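User: Second chain of the day. Same drill as before.
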Amino acid sequence: MPDPEALLRVSHLSHSFGGFRAVDDCSFEIAQGSISALIGPNGAGKSTVVSLIGGSLRTQEGSIHFDGVDVSRMQAFKVARLGLLRTYQVSREFGQLTVMENLLVPPPHQRGENLLNALLRPSVGHKQDRALAARAVEVLETFGLLALRDEYAGNLSGGEKRLLELARAVMAEPKFMLLDEPMAGINPALIARLDGHIRRLRDEHGITFLLVEHNLDVVERICDRVVVMAYGRTLAEGQMSELRENPEVVRAYLGGGLDERAVG
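Assistant: Same format as last time:
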């Protein structure tokens, strides 16, 4: 039975590249207000599913519903307007803009961008700009980036770019955040900061999260539910502690024991 509290529903999703079927009848649901994870070995189809959900690939078979809207063949920018935002494995900051300027790009409905307002009512845009700048300062302070507000984003460390990417997404007021390997390539101290921010954003702002993550210690620590993919399909769902004991899941990870060293 469908979960009435599901914010995201992926139903019988399939996608092929030429003769290769990367996703094959994959289905799962993500409950509103949850922190969930999508995991699986290399070649499981996770990246393709993420691209389909985010709108950078068009759905060939099956459907994706977000907040009651069919987004299966919707363009990425339209999906984002509904409140579903995606981050990437490689941070995509605006390197030639400052950290502060990066945060002022995403907020929706900026009145100063309206030509009529810009020509006839510039004070409307100026007032909103001041409010957005004040909010950006609060967000930067929350993420521990305020001291870097005037630094070019391209000069940040890998971990700082991850924090900036999350902070920038928050400025867009999302309902749902799809994080693609957010902990990749950063040190343990920053991992602890990131997972703390994810939990805080869920608890304080009601943002729902789906993480594609290789670090299973993080998954077990912060995720309410985990979806395991293998061979393009949903293999199992549950809490990480349960999945570690599931023989099919262990076999999917090449029989090497279900820990972060076995994940691809």
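Confidence is low (pLDDT under 50) at residues 110-122, 254-264.

User: Great, on to the next one.
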